[in-house]
Amino acid sequence: MPSEWAPVLLGGEIPQLDDKIARVSFNVLMSHFNDILHRVQNKPDTYEPVFWRDPAGQDVVDNWVRGFIDGYRLRAGQWAELIDHEDKKILSPIFIHLRTEDGSYALDGGRIDDDVRRIAATHIRTAVLEIDRFWRQRRKRAIKQVRPDAKAGRNDPCTCGSGRKYKKCCGAN
Hints:
Helices cover 50% and strands 2% of the residues. With 173 residues, the protein is mainly α.
């Protein structure tokens, strides 16, 4: 939900801006969020993660990974289901870039070279799509467990808990 991740993205709190600036800024942010979500879920061949580039033209993946981990921490308890699952390897291209507070890589003890990390970065797109697939399968199972009489109207929040309208989420299928 945006109310959870927006303050994290904006440095801890949503700044108080004049209504028009706040509305336009938040709309741009939500438009980008919805575009990414739409691409991942409906047009996966058009999704690409956005990385910074250094002066030599190399992708700088650390900022993207840091943002991913900030999102992960918001729902760490739920992510445990994937971490404990045999599919957890899909997180490898992301987790290989984790850094500790002192800036060293967290998982390798200095044994993985930069070339391996560059190759892993090329697999982050696939990892994101596989993570989405993993959670979609979980949501479909949860939806099947909902009683038949617990139907949502088109404009009601989706029963899967995504926060989106039913007609834009599970009702679109």
